[in-house]
Each structure stands twice: as C-alpha cells, then as structure tokens.
Amino acid sequence: MNQVSGVGVSAGRVVGTVLKMAPPVAAPPEGERLAPGTDAAAEAARIKDAAGVVKAKLQERAAAATGDSKKVLEATAMMAADPALTKDAAKRVTDGGSSAPRAVWDAAEKVADMLKGLGGYMAERANDIYDVRSRIVAELRGEQPPGVPTSSTPFVLVAVDLAPADTATLDPALVQALVTSEGGPQSHTAILARQLGLPAIVAAHGADAIAEGTEVFVDGAAGTVSLEVGDTERQYAATWAERAANPSVFNGVGKLSDGFSVPLLANIGNAKDAKKAAAANAEGVGLFRTEFLFLDQADEPPVDVQVKQYTDVFAEFPGKKVVIRTLDAGADKPLPFVTDDTEPNPALGVRGYRTSWHYPDVLTNQLRAIAQAADASEADVWVMAPMIATAAESSDFAQQCMAAGIKRPGIMIEIPAAALTSDRLLTDATFASIGTNDLTQYTMAADRQLGSLAELNDPWQPGLLALVKASVDGATRAGQQVSGDATAPDEHHHGDPARPVGVCGEAAGDPALAVVLVGLGVSTLSMTPRSLANVAEILASVSKADTTRIAELALSAPSAAEAKARVREQIPLLEELGL
C-alpha cells in the first residue's frame, strides 16, 4: 500500500510522522454482573460521581477553548451528566444487578440508538454519547480515556474517527494534519478542521492500518495520503508551509481575470461571526443562519430580542448585502417549540419553512423582527426561506415578506423539485440561494452525516451540477418574464439581475468547484471567511469564457471523480498552490 485515498475536507500539504489515537475503551463483558457482596447503591452512586468528574474535565477544557470548539466541549460536558444516561445506568445496577461499567455501556447505547433514529445532525450526536460513555467507563475503571496523543514535536494524527471533544482541542501548532478512516464531509471533525485551517481527510478507508511512526505526505485538497515521500512531496510541503506563513488576503472585490464580477460573501451564524467576516473583507453575507440564535432556547425568543441580534449583525455590513435565512428548524436541528421529535424520517419531515404550517406566528414574528432591524440599519437585507418545494410555498413566503415590509424575498434551493421548477418558484420570490449540502444529499439519497456514503455525498456529482444549471436557467427565464427583457446578460453580470442565484453551501468554498459554479451561471458565492482569499485567487486566474468551458467539462463527466480531475487539469494554479 503506497497511498490511501479519502475525501479531502480541508486543503493543505504536509510531510509528517504518523501518531495514532489511543485504542478505544474496551467494552465490558456482555452481561457483566456485580461482584458478590458488592453494595449496589454504592456502585450506582459511583456512576454519578464518575459522570461528574468527566463533566468537570470537559468543562475545564472548554474554559481554555474558544469559538465553536468551546461550544462543542460545553455541549459534550452537558451530555456527560445527562440524567437520561446516568439515571438509567444507576437503575440497571440497583434493579438489574449489572456492573457499573456495563450499566453505563448499555444505557449509553439506548440513548445513541434514539439519536440515530432521529437522523441528520442528531444522529451525528450519537458519537458524542459514545465518547462520553468511554470517558465514564474509563473513570470507573481508573483508566486513561482515549484521546489525542501527547507529543513535543509536530505529527500527523490518524484515527478511525475523532470525538467532537477531541477535535475541539486539537493544537494546530502540533497537529500538522488530520486523517480519519471513517467520518463524512459534514461531520464535526470536518467542520472544525476547516475552521482551524488544518489539512484534513475523512473516509480514508485503510488509514487506520498505517503504522505509527510512518512518514507520510498528506494532500488535503486531493484527499490522499502517500506513504512514499520524495523530493517532490517535500517541495510541495515546503511551498504550502510558506503560503500558510504568509497567507494571501482577500481585497474585498471578487472578479475574474477579464473583470467579470463575482461577489464573494460569507456564511455566518451570529454577530461574532459577522465581525470576523467583515474583518476578512467579505463583500457581504450570503447566509445568516438564524437557527443558531434559537437552538438553546426552550421557547421562541421574543421579537425585541431577535431585533437586537439581527441589528448587531447588520451593523457590520453597512451598504452591503446581508442574506438572512429564516428559521431552519427540524431534522438535524430540532426545536421544542416547532418540531416533532417522533417523526420517523426527520430529514424528509416538517422542517424549515414547513414548520410555519403549524406554527405560523413563529415565522410572522421573525419576519417582523428582521424588518424592524433592517429599517434601523444601513445593510441591504434580503430574506430567504429554507426547504421550499413548490411555487405555492414560494408565493406564500414572498407575500408574508412583503406584508412585513421586506422588499427582497427569496428561497433556498435544497430540493431537486425546486431546482427543476425554479422558473415557477421565482415568479414572486426575487432571488434564490442553492444549499449544496442538502441538495446533494437529497439528489443522491445519501445522508450527509454518514462517512460510508461520502463518495455519493459529493458536490462534484454531475447530477448535482446539472441541478445547479437547471436552477440558474430557470431563474433566468423567470427574470426575463418579470422584466420583459429576453436579451442576454451584460458582460459584467451573470444572468438576469432580476432573479439572481447564489450558492451558500460548502461547495462555494472549494476554489476548483467555485470556477464551475460561476461557469454554470451562479452570480454570488458564500463561504466560511477563511476560504475567501483562496477562492478569489483562483477565480482571478480565469476568464468568463474559461469558466463556461470548464463547467461544461465537469457537467459532461461520468462521475464526481472524473469531473474534479477534468477541472483541476484545466486550472494548473490549483496544483501549484495546493488548493
């Protein structure tokens, strides 16, 4: 075995020595019972004490972390002391005579099975439960819990997968790259690696068989781990190290080599994110995920509280576009005041805009709050609804926006039906934004959280690219009908400006795929602020005619891998920069 391939989720090229995660905590023997003469009540109490110790240790790590890492650790700490886990485990000891470790093991499995049944993001949280289970059992046994190995020198971390609590505390000064044999492109591991700017590959089947101490070359963009390291690989790594030490800075103007304008926007979730995006010179916000303001609430936040939160975000972008998405609750983001946690298939259930069918006041109040915040700011506020499937839904949302005083209502295109009928959906709605994460999983019938489906859940899939093109073509027809102008777009803008289509999914932050999206007619790209400079640099190396030609190559490819290979061959700068 000279090379292991997986899904690259964060670009970067490094040469380093492999260290592996400690082996997982061994499962207690099936049916393990209390030893004769053991006080069952005392053993049950030990479970609560061990869970408390685990919670305290995780909170201690959270206190030293920042941003999303801090949130992940705090959430995992809360899971450690979850009564649903500890009380069930204690009862298995006192009533069933199970040993404390085995009781924790079985109780955690019950909670994990429940989360898996919910699907999506909640299914991903099952890994958090397994992590907590291992930590509590290790504490009960007096063992060291599994985790990131300690080292005084930099290393490439290889693991089957990482628990969120481990990923959240990775030190980029020591961990040169991250490679997991499981996990998917939307897992905690992938998302946090991108935020840290850490070269990372997931779903690299066979990576866990690489011997510790092996020198490897990791190419995060290509998704490969080479076990044979020569002069070429060392030069690649040196070039990347120099680039990382002197990163390029986005100048705030996204355009192609011929001056064709492609505004580059940022994805955010709160005012803190907005400040970072503004500091990175984002040309605006292409996706403001408002659900993150609701997730830790037992009840709907009052209108005045929402107004304050939206106003703080809008203040960072005076005179610039801010696209705000209304509450995207349901599926992987359940909220007690609008969603039903008993749905058999939440990803295909009542989520996003659909929650307004049963709880219309939540949407009405949010639109009222957005309108008030927009009136009090200088931002150019656009509002879109998630999970729109039909023209009737699109029209209803547009009418609600207009009634609230919002002038630019739009829709998310995340469902294949919406992509195929975008001309009808954009009669009343004035713009669309393609969420490639959900559109990919619905197009390929592949849960985006499952590492085993990572190859299907790839935005390079020709089927997904065809739906992007269908969305843009339909939007152009709708725009021409509204404006009564069937002429071609001018040389500086994509499509009819009456009905622009942007992309705000993870695909927009891939510099190679960004070229394809522009070639397919997408007008704006929105991404994590860290990706802005790289995307801008690659776009500036191609002309409008280049993007159209390159997009056709990808669109006609028989597979995702071939589409990606064809595009990269046409843009040698990608290889040169390691992107």
Description:
- With 579 residues, the protein is of the alpha/beta class.
- The chain is built from 22 helices and 16 strands.
- Strands 1-8-7-3-4-5-6-2 form an eight-stranded mixed β-sheet. Strands 9-10-11-12-13-14-15-16 form an eight-stranded parallel barrel, surrounded by five helices.
- The radius of gyration is 25 Å and the shape is globular.
| Multimer state | single chain
**Estimated helix fraction:** 40-55%
The count of DSSP E runs of length 2 or more, i.e. the number of strands, is 16
Q: What portion of the residues fall into strands of 2 or more residues?
A: 5-15%
Strand order of the largest sheet: 1-8-7-3-4-5-6-2
Structural class: alpha/beta
- Provide mean pLDDT, rounded: 88
* CA-based gyration radius: 25 Å
Overall, the morphology is globular
Distance, first to last CA:
25 Å
The parts where pLDDT drops under 50 for at least 5 residues are: 486-496
Q: Figure out the total of helices.
A: 22
* Sheet of most strands: 8 strands, mixed
Provide a quick synopsis of the model.
The chain is α/β, with parallel strands linked by helices and 579 residues long.
Notable traits:
alpha/beta, eight-stranded mixed β-sheet, 22 helices, globular, 579 residues
Describe the SSE topology.
Layout: E1 3-5, E2 7-10, E3 13-20, H1 40-63, H2 67-80, H3 83-94, H4 100-118, H5 120-124, H6 126-141, E4 155-159, H7 164-167, E5 175-180, H8 188-196, E6 200-202, E7 215-219, E8 224-226, H9 231-245, E9 264-268, H10 271-279, E10 284-289, H11 303-314, E11 321-325, H12 360-375, E12 380-385, H13 391-404, E13 409-413, H14 416-420, H15 422-425, E14 431-434, H16 436-444, H17 462-483, E15 501-503, H18 511-519, E16 524-527, H19 532-539, H20 544-555, H21 560-570, H22 572-577
Parallel strand pairs: 3-4, 4-5, 5-6, 9-10, 9-16, 10-11, 11-12, 12-13, 13-14, 14-15, 15-16
Antiparallel strand pairs: 1-8, 2-6, 3-7, 7-8
Helix pairs in contact: 1-2, 1-3, 1-6, 2-6, 3-4, 4-6, 10-11, 11-12, 18-19, 18-20, 20-21
